Amino acid sequence: MLTEKTVVLAVSGSIAAYKAANIARMCKKLNADVQVLMTKNAENFINPITFESLTGNKCLIDTFDRNFQYSVEHVALAKKASVVLLAPASANVIGKIANGIADDMLTTTIMACTCKKIISPAMNHNMFHNPIVQDNIKKLASYGYEIVTPDRGMLANGDIGDGRMPDEQTLVNYILKECAFEKDLSGKKVLITAGATREPLDPVRFISNHSTGKMGVALAENAMLRGADVTLVAAHTDVPLPPFVTIVKAETAAEMYTAVTDRFDDCDIVVMAAAVADYRPKNAAENKIKKSGASPEIEFERTQDILAELGRRKTHQFLCGFSMETENLVENSAKKLEKKNLDMICANNLKIKGAGFGTDTNVITVITKDGMQELELMSKQKAAENIFTSIIKRL
Ligand code: CTP
Q: What spacing in Å lies between the alpha carbon of 185 and ligand 1's midpoint?
């Protein structure tokens, strides 16, 4: 996801510097060119050789050290940087950058970079809340630096407080949000549904389906990485929900109906990837627990078809549905496209190996009024990317 991107990882003197090694490794695994800069103080916490072994690049420390042509080096690096992550950012380095002091390799390079700079403060609770540090952080934010709020938890000295550097994945997520994709959905409001609705049968049991939410979650993540303002209406899911996305929980079809219709007017793109129950037990709230052995007589009623309702209300929105079929995939899906007044339907055949519920891959046919595109077997992330590329072409 970071192929041809240069991630500048700037590491200052804080015990959290050990986490930076993992960040370097994770970015490298995502194919980034990772360039690590360290302050002199950071060397007290982690050895530059660690970063050099992980990234395959020289770790740069200060302007007078180790026979490098640093004055040229820092400008060249600043020019090719796709993103800078300063993690951990000590109070000292935050203070220097906020006040225009550039007296080593790290601060001079950051100052010469025009790309997005993400700063992850890591320090003791009282230092973090010191008004001078807070003022410096606000000043950096006002200049467009992105500040990662530190976690609350046990700090290095055993105290509980604010100032903990978030885990490595969280910081890599900030990098991905910044540069994994072109921002071709910027300014768009996107609403996605994901997962399996659950319809109560009695106070203990429910009726549901095998959807894990992987496809809907991959769609929400892709739209977020492309710069959209994303809301994910999540029924029951078995996968972690994506960062930087507004999550709205909806357990039943009725809750999902309300969550989606309430937000529909404001949206530009809506993708219904949730597997919504078509029927629910009647009068579930009044039902008592069915004793085992007894044969329950359950009456069912239809749930509202959310997608069809959206098709009726549609004005400017691009509306995309999913269709699960076991036979006549294209015909049945094309009928749904027409009947529900959709702009696109993503059909998958549950009988094909590697497609449908629970798998990490999918085989999708994207159907629109003007034709269809068969996608080969691919990861749900890649399928999500293809679906949004198709949607963007039609906006
Ligand atoms: N859907 C919905 N509300 C429902 C049922 C389904 O919004 N009560 C949406 C799903 O999220 C999916 C699309 O409708 O995007 C198609 O779902 P599917 O179950 O394949 O089709 P149905 O219209 O329910 O028809 P059938 O079950 O007969 O195939």
A: 26
